[in-house]
Amino acid sequence: MITALMAIVTVYFVIKLYISVMQVGYINRVKRMPPVLMGSAAYMKAANYAVAKEKLKMVGMFIEYFMFLVWLDGGIQWLDRMTLNVEEPYKSIVMVLGFVYINALVELPLTLYEKFVLDEKFGFNRTSVALYLKDTAVTIALVTVLGGLVIWGVSAIITSTGLWWLWTFFFLFAVVIVLNMFYPTIRALFFDKLSPLEDRELNEKIEGLMHKTGFVSSGVFVSDASKRDSRLNAYFGGLGKSKRVVLFDTLLEKLTPQELLAVLGHELGHYAHGDLYKNIGVVGVLLFVMLAIFGNLPSSLFLNLGITETPAVDMIMFLLFLPVVSFFVMPFMGMISRHNEYEADRTGSELGGALYLANALRKLVSENQSFPLSHPIYIFFYYTHPPVVERLKALGFDEENRYSREALDGGCEAETLREELEEGSSKA
């Protein structure tokens, strides 16, 4: 059984590594071709950033594989011995949180390098060391308290019933729903400072859009996200009466009001199509399958590993193999998500205008320095959103062909194209 598990993990590692190698090679090849969605300098910079991040990700894969070997070859036993005299449920809490924090500590150098070296080099990072330490301390506190409560609940279920994996599913699925409800509140309390949108005219237009789709919100808020990162973003968070519209201040700074309304129209499209509930349902299916598998592992596996089957060990095995199962399920989830994105784009174009949504997508690519092209196999496994080039094509803008023709003819770059489109929109 151990041999089979290690074979599965090895296949998982090799496939991930192969996909990353293909992605790096693909980007290095297409970055020398006529640029798409960006000017030449920005296009090359985005390509170099994407390659650098992928190479860093590949280093993380080797660390992940090494930690698999460590945990299965004595690591779990060591944790068990360290907590030998601790009674349940505290034993489970200490063991599982220990597993989580040891993994995080091993990955910390890569995290710091990405934030303070790579993102700094390419102009994304705005986080000070003090703010990073504060965020890390808050995150640890939240994971310890909330995670400890969840571990305590699962431990109680495992020790009280034979069909523990099924009841654990109901418990964890309820936790997922509660976290989705209170995520905006938790984020506002501990990380981002949210303030009501002061632009009264824009606020009224946003409320008008929400009224068209029946979206009832507790308000439109602006997040001070620029103190951490320069990327543009927005989100609709919460369920029921706790729903909020949150706009990053970077988004307000870079997009015109019409473009912003088109982006919010896209997000409202997700609401109108029930995508949030569909996503929660898909997570529920994945959670059910995972618990069904790891709730019925043969006792011989634990004997071969030299460990006693306890609530903590069950949870650690679940967390250890969750990335493996998720990786092979992700293509299915990605196909659903990409379909939903196209549908939301259609709604966004109807509510805010296809031209404005297209302009906003171009700016998002440019400002976030997101390289617009990826290898097909990388898209298949990792993309929850369709490539922006394909989204623009679905909106009626064949960007790839146009940019190729203009580059060959010595034509204009991305900013000129946007200006032309905006001029055409005003004339219309």
- Beta content comes to under 5%
User: Level of helix content?
Assistant: over 70%
Largest sheet: 4 strands, mixed
Structural category is: mainly alpha
Overview of this protein structure:
The chain is mostly helical. 75% of the residues lie in helices and 4% in strands. The chain has helices spanning 2-30, 40-82, 90-121, 129-160, 164-190, 200-213, 249-254, 257-272, 275-294, 299-305, 311-352, 354-367, 376-382, 388-394, 399-408, 414-427, and strands spanning 194-196, 220-223, 234-237, 244-248. The protein has a 4-stranded mixed beta sheet. The longest helix is centred in the N-terminal third of the chain and has 43 residues, at 40-82. The model is unreliable at 403-428 (pLDDT under 50).
Summarize the structure.
It is built from 16 helices and four strands.
Question: Which key phrases capture this entry?
Answer:
single chain, 428 residues, mainly alpha, four-stranded mixed beta sheet, globular, disordered C terminus
Element layout with pairings:
Layout: H1 2-30, H2 40-82, H3 90-121, H4 129-160, H5 164-190, E1 194-196, H6 200-213, E2 220-223, E3 234-237, E4 244-248, H7 249-254, H8 257-272, H9 275-294, H10 299-305, H11 311-352, H12 354-367, H13 376-382, H14 388-394, H15 399-408, H16 414-427
Parallel strand pairs: 2-4
Antiparallel strand pairs: 1-2, 3-4
